UniProtKB/TrEMBL annotation:
Signal peptide: none annotated. One of its GO terms (cellular component) is cytoplasm. Keywords: Ligase. PANTHER family: GH3 DOMAIN-CONTAINING PROTEIN, JASMONOYL--L-AMINO ACID SYNTHETASE JAR1. Belongs to the IAA-amido conjugating enzyme family. The keyword Disulfide bond does not apply. This is GH3 family. The keyword Ligase applies. GO terms for molecular function: acid-amino acid ligase activity. It comes from Arabidopsis suecica (Swedish thale-cress). Residues 440-553 form the GH3 C-terminal domain. It holds the Pfam family GH3.
Amino acid sequence: MLEKVETFDMNRVIDEFDEMTRNADQVQKQTLKDILLKNKSAIYLQNCGLNGNAADSEEAFKAMVPLVTDVELEPYIKRMVDGDTSPILTGHPVPAISLSSGTSQGRPKFIPFTDELMENTLQLFRTAFAFRNRDFPIDDNGRALQFIFGSKQYISTGGVPVGTATTNVYRNPNFKAGMKSITSPSCSPDEVVFSPDVHQALYCHLLSGILFRDQVQYVFAVFAHGLVHAFRTFEQVWEEIVTDIKDGVLSNRITVPSVRTAMSKLLTPNPELAETIRSKCMSLSNWYGLIPALFPNAKYVYGIMTGSMEPYVPKLRHYAGDLPLVSHDYGSSEGWIAANVTPKLSPEEATFAVIPNLGYFEFLPVSETGEGEEKPVGLTEVKIGEEYEVVITNYAGLYRYRLGDVVKIIGFYNNTPQLKFICRRNLILSINIDKNTERDLQLSVESAAKRLSEEKIEVIDFSSHIDVSTDPGHYAIFWEISGETNEDVLQDCCNCLDRAFIDAGYVSSRKCKTIGALELRVVAKGTFRKIQEHFLGLGSSAGQFKMPRCVKPSNAKVLQILCENVVSSYFSTAF
């Protein structure tokens, strides 16, 4: 019997979102009530003095439940991972645990994953798809080239399935059915998505996309980094892919039996397609417009392109040519928060409208001085132009949880705020009285990279480290660049990096020599790929990987990889 597929009604989904956002305040109150009722037996809430009765008002919740970070919740979640089935954070045992990417702190965080989070994911995807499909309609019989990687779950010592957030979503039994009406069929067989070898999976994703090239409606990866990595890889393997298509025989590099079997079913000798791809690749200038050349009917390129992914947008735009870049929605391993309801905006301008029933949201004002913490405000109480740290309460046992993300309120969609992601709140570069965030580092690199671009060279990737092995300590910035240039150019870049940190504490410390000269360390080609391999070896998902922008002492292995691959270094003479 054929499975019944629910018909997707775009206008109904948009109307429902409009209605919900008009009543955002009431929806928030009801959502908090539902969360507390569903988890009323949770030991954590009872320890806070809440009992899941009518007296547990919004005001009582805020008064009795403290603001927390992952550090405070870690002991509770560890009990769940270890197999304790008592109602610790949630009313019922959680079916799985998610792992964050772990790139920021050198270790992944454990986060409860529940059926409600899965339903939230599908709700957000439906909402975002409705707005996206209104602006960029796709053909019903088309396909999607999706660079997704469902890495393996493992079973913890306590018997709980553990995997990355994306893996828990892709492996959830409700995922395929829930996505059927709102996504085009993937070009790649499931065996490729769930391949144990991500390199073989990536090669097969590319090959599958080209085999269905005329049907591809859009190209997707979770992160812009994944898209750039995919097409950088294509530059290296395209001739091998052409040979596979011409001969109808899969490359020997594919050794996973299930993947070989699935891909071999797609392949038949096709010299005409092989010659078309060869001709397209040979005609491109420095691979500009590669994506539309390969996929002539693609409508857009889709993925998370804001925040720490912004540095990859220029290269992605180079590959995309005139194709629109559409920013994926805003969320984290802890859960989804907001949808992109204005998909025509460029990644640099992208904003995200909070979906009021995905959780209970508070916003902690970000103090300019960092001294004295203000009280958080509610979803509808935020002010346009102000910056806040996001605080979430969700169905999966996170209560007044500080996400660490700083967002700026750009406007409102009805009565729900539209956010722009600014940066992670935790300071990543600080020696003395200086305070520089991930965003400050990004702006510094962008500024210095302009000098490099005059030489037709680009920054492939970057990171940083506080070097206190010397006195005074200094900032060390690691660059991997696309070509060779003379030392004067790199010295200019080094000075530009130093000058671009405009934080008053940094500038004054540099001038009075309490912070040493900034050091630019150029690393060998392939260094940042080695770092990715390191994290994949620790269990990170290829689709969820984010490059650490500041390498702390706790990330000793990553620091070792960077330092062992330095080919030249330059000290700033800017101060």
